[in-house]
Amino acid sequence: MSPRRRYFDGVAGLTQYPAGPHASACAEAVEGPIGRFAATAPGERPPTGPGPTAERLRHYEAGAMMARAGLARSRPDAGRTVDRTSAEDIVVLPGAYDRVQDVLDRLDLPYTMLPPAELAGTTLDPSQILIANCPGDVGTGIGEVRRFVAEGGTLLSTDWALDRLVAQAFPGTVEPTGGSTADAVVGVRPGCGTHPLLEGAFGRGDSARWWLEVGSYPIRVRWWSGVTVLLESGELRRRWGASPVAVLFGHGRGEVYHMISHFYLQRSDEAGARPGRSAREWAKQRGTRFRPGELEGITARQLESATSSARLLLNLIADKRVRVEEDRRAAG
To answer: Are 120 and 73 in contact (CB under 8 A)?
Structure first.
């Protein structure tokens, strides 16, 4: 067990500090509503088991170092705020198909594990971040999730939680298209290039890739005036009918982030990779130096992919923690 992890034992003693009002930096739709097409039938997938391979954990560790160093350079105050994160600030619902906690471990961020079956009997604090790993089955806890977000809480969910949690708790916002993907790695690009949550996650000239595990649920946007598409993929739209990779929308005083596929699975293929560029060179160009041997066996594209997903998660957490601390100072 990670020394930064603990299991849920209640947060009744915490004062409630709702997050600031949701404010999207851009809310431009990247595509209109679409019907179902080019989609494979949804199916079962094997559980995640013990987690990512040792090789991929090395990618995460290097990507997390890049993400932490990048945040410290670009937003030093936010970096120090993240350093003050406690286990009560991030609540993780374990799931059979995703392990966002493995990325949190690599980022050296503490968190609390809460069994999904116990969510209905728990009162979450709006100052917290709730991470719902795929598949996102929370049973009667859906009402608690809705209340939590409405009062200022932040929800991050992945893949099948789109159908089993997000679409049920927040109907009319986003939903599955009704199909599912094959195992594939697709190119992604910012759907909203100026959004602060994307800062440092995608550098100029980068060719970020996103792994769609077999059975991932494409995202259909229903509430076009209120949903921001943070990341999109033209390849995903061509093959499976919907381009969003990561979306954001507000509900009450809180917000919901959802993304297709899984954080812990992110890998990269080497198709189309630029020859002659090492991972050390890529890191150095972005201001981070590694000791000789630290990146041995890791390609530039693998480091790029791991850094993008780690920095996106870190930005989500930093944004929330900064707003919470600002609200606490304002409240005196």
So the answer is: no
For every one of its 332 residues, what pLDDT tens digit does the chain have, with 9 covering 90 and above?
333 443 333 333 222 222 333 344 444 333 333 222 233 334 454 444 445 577 778 888 999 999 999 999 999 999 999 999 999 999 999 988 888 998 999 999 999 999 999 999 999 999 999 999 999 999 999 999 999 999 999 999 999 999 999 999 999 999 999 999 998 888 888 887 678 999 998 755 556 778 888 899 999 999 999 999 999 999 999 999 999 999 999 999 999 999 998 765 444 454 444 445 789 998 998 899 998 888 998 988 888 888 988 999 999 999 999 999 999 999 98
Tokens for 193, please give them.
């290039």
Q: For residues 319 and 304, give the distance between their C-alpha atoms in angstroms, rounded to a whole number.
A: 22
Other Cβ atoms within 10 Å of 331 Cβ, number: 8
Cβ neighbourhood burial of 57 (10 Å; 0-12, 13-18, 19+): middle
Domain extents for the chain? Answer: 22-31+85-276+310-324
pTM, rounded to two decimals: 0.84
Q: Please give the angle made by the CA atoms of 158, 326 and 102, to the nearest 5 degrees.
A: 30
User: Count of alpha carbons within 13 Å of 228, Cβ hemisphere only?
Assistant: 22
Q: Angle at Cα 249 formed by Cα 246 and Cα 254, nearest 5°?
A: 125
What class is the 22-31+85-276+310-324 domain?
Answer: alpha beta
- Residue 317 parent element (H or E): helix 300-331
Peptide bond connecting 292 to the previous residue in cis, omega within 30 degrees of 0: no
Residue 291 exposed, middle or buried by CB count within 10 Å (0-12, 13-18, 19+): exposed
CA distance 209 to 186: 5
Letter string b/e over residues 86-114, b meaning 16 or more CB atoms within 10 A of that residue's CB: ebbbbbbbbbebbbbbbbbbbbebbbbbb
Place of tokens 């790695």: 185
What is the DSSP-derived secondary structure letter of residue 88? T
Could you tell me where the beta strands, DSSP code E, fall in 98-179? Answer: 111-113, 129-132, 154-158, 174-176
